Amino acid sequence: MDPVTKGDYPQNMHDYVGERLPKFSEEESKMLRGSYDFIGVNYYTTYYAQNVEDANYKTIGLMEDARVTWPGERNGIPIGPQAGSSWLYICPEGIRHLLNYIKDAYQNPTIYITENGVDDVNSSSLEEALNDHVREQYYKDIFDNVLESINDRGVDVKGFFAWSFSDDFEWGSGYSSRFGLYYIDYKDDLKRYAKNSVKWFKQFLHKDETKLINNM
Length: 216
Description:
Blueprint: H1 2-6, H2 11-17, H3 26-32, E1 39-43, E2 50-51, H4 62-66, E3 68-69, E4 73-74, E5 77-78, H5 93-105, E6 111-116, E7 120-121, H6 126-130, H7 133-153, E8 157-160, E9 177-178, E10 182-185, E11 191-194, H8 196-215
Parallel strand pairs: 1-6, 6-8
Antiparallel strand pairs: 2-3, 4-5, 7-9, 10-11
Helix pairs in contact: 5-7
Keywords: Hydrolase
GO biological process, one term: carbohydrate metabolic process
Protein name: GLYCOSYL HYDROLASE
């Protein structure tokens, strides 16, 4: 985010990446600063961060350049329950820390949460698949944390997009990972079934809409 807010990469990227880091001219930096309309945040999970001490670090790569490792557990204890995917730990408070950090570090930009959700694996029965209480609780906890950032820290969050409306093809996991609010039956003409979380989501949106109308 530094280039579009400050016109250049942060100093630690210059220190670690060195000559491999692209350089902006003075004119380009001026054009970049404040050039965004809003900041889009995709949030799914949180990890711990552990510094890598190695003055002679030569390996090149995303993780290596950052001089950090990202474990999902500490002292054998996961940071949160594991969802359907091995990389996704359920840690709703992480979004609050992230939003607060963006607000403090980048002069409180307008934020849209452009992706957020939790997955489960294929279930043995349709009834089991539709009973997605973990997803329902996940969204409740996410919204509680986002609201806390808005009310307590003044974070400028303007919108939220759930990932996803329906089960879909999830990268390397293919159709085995289900993020959808709606269940897709891949073996029966792609029929859609509302999971239990949809009922709560509808109630949540209706309540919010009613409050908005009453305040007008």
